[in-house]
Design brief:
Blueprint lengths: L1 H29 L2 E3 H7 L6 H8 L7 E3 L11 E3 L1 E5 L2 E5 L11 E7 L1 H8 L6 E7 L2
Parallel strand pairs: 4-7
Antiparallel strand pairs: 1-6, 2-3, 4-5, 6-7
């Protein structure tokens, strides 16, 4: 009886631990920012901002499909690139992240299409990665 109780307790603890780990991973995937602290804690060896994003937030790098309403000009799906803004200055496509040393980053933020348009004006549906550099 005692052995069965111990097995059940162990199973319950393992389940709780695995659920907690899964929730932490899901929260990280949904996160729209990456701070210097999180980068440091991750122990990721990265030379550039691109390496960091590719390792810690790979979904940020995907080109997104912009779907237009049928019957409107340009109604076929188009892809929209991910743009990089460094300290709120548009630096161009995502490949610019490869020129930013990882050690200079204070924070990285992902902006979806609406957030990008709200912050930077009409953007044709693009998404953005905003880089905030250390001073």
């Amino acid at each position: 009886m005692r052995a069965t109780t111990m097995r059940l307790v162990t199973l319950a603890l393992a389940t709780v631990c695995s659920v907690s780990a899964l929730q932490a991973l899901q929260a990280q995937r949904r996160s729209k920012s990456l701070s210097a602290e999180e980068i440091e804690k991750s122990n990721v060896v990265a030379n550039t901002a691109y390496d960091l994003v590719e390792t810690l937030r790979p979904r940020w790098l995907h080109v997104h499909e912009l779907v237009r309403l049928p019957g409107t000009p340009g109604s076929s799906p188009q892809s929209t690139p991910v743009y990089v803004y460094v300290n709120d200055v548009n630096m161009g496509p995502v490949d610019y992240l490869k020129t930013i040393p990882a050690r200079n980053i204070q924070e990285l933020r992902y902006l979806d299409q609406n957030e990008t348009a709200s912050r930077y004006g009409p953007t044709d549906g693009q998404v953005a990665i905003v880089v905030i550099l250390k001073r």
